[in-house]
Amino acid sequence: MNPFTYVRAANSDDAIATLTREPQAMFIAGGTNILDLMKEGVHTPSQLVDIRKLPSTEIVTKDNGGIRIGATLRNSDAAYNSLVQERYPVLSEAILAGASAQLRNMATVGGNLMQRTRCSYFHDTAFACNKRQPGSGCAALEGFNRMHAVLGTSEHCIAAHPSDMCVALVALDAVVQTQGPRGERSIPITDFHLLPGETPHLETVLEHGEIITAVDLPEMPLAWRSHYLKIRDRASYAFALVSAAVVLEIDEEVIRNARIALGGVGTKPWRSLEAEQVLVGAPATQETFTAAADAAMQEARPYRHNQFKIELAKRTLEEALKTVAAISGGQA
Questions:
Q1: DSSP 224
Q2: Which residues form the FAD-binding PCMH-type domain (predicted)?
Q3: What is the pLDDT of residues 123-164, one digit of tens each?
Q4: Which domains does the chain possess?
């Protein structure tokens, strides 16, 4: 691990100013991702600016009926919060499906938004990786790419996004609140993460020195009828092969509203507008769910070792749809 200095920020203005002065500095909160990357030589910051003690650790109800989740709130506290469990169960399920209890007790909501890919070629500096070193190539394209993405890929990067929480946030139309050298921003979660394209080293729209302060969830009465289903190689502490976050509103066995997001298959948390278009206005039947799953994966592009993800994602989405339909009183 390279030498670095450490400072603890007193407030968000102090954190932003400190990071802005040092081009190679990085924020640290829970440290569950960045410390691993530093040990591996992927990240070599000159300074760590600790933001864990900033006063953004609460969940509050907003005047518009939604809730605001503080960026430095621990993932476990977010998952077990009564407002989240009652009004947005898909988010609680997604967080509890990620990592281990010990990691969830350290990791923060803002850090989860910023976690980097678990692509083994990204983590191993002996291999080429355009995400780690732009222009060096992508070893995963011809390598062992079983865990990699099939949606949103490019000839420069096929790494899958690892977060469970972000998949649920995409289904819930979350908005990321930030503060930076140029002021405050509200960023829709679907715009927060970037597709790799020709610049896979740019993963989010955040600028250097910009800090996540909170995540807003809109009032969404239909969200209590929701479910997160994660398929993985073992029962615990494994990243998703595929996952699905489903929010449905069903009235008289007709789907009136739908929010669909997928994990493990995209280079970013994947909102499937194609599946939603099939679902809305259609009867809540097996035939509709199958058509929606087919639509969700119609643009998928498999690689040598991950062809199986396409069919697995379809079946996972169908199962999640059936579960939410049963909750809503529709057909299952």
A1: G
A2: 1-222
A3: 999 999 999 999 999 999 999 999 999 999 999 999 999 999
A4: 5-52 (3.30.43.10), 226-326 (3.30.390.50)
